[in-house]
Amino acid sequence: MAGVAGGRAARYHEQAAHFQNLAQMESEPQAREQLLRLAGEYRELADRGPRRPSAELLGGRAENRKIRAAAFPMSDRPVREG
To answer: Is the pTM of this model over 0.70?
Structure first.
């Protein structure tokens, strides 16, 4: 999972650099400001730790497993709870 988070962070750093470069080329002050704001937001996202799944998301996954088990009762896999 660390590789996924590291890949996400690297991609966000790339996006931040891209928006920073676009801002340097932009002559319209409002557009430049918006690009710099986006660059900053992507840098913040990149520097945050990995996201933790919400309880709501995890609960939804459990419900999906129950539905799948009901739809495919011949499966030899037990239904996991939670």
So the answer is: no
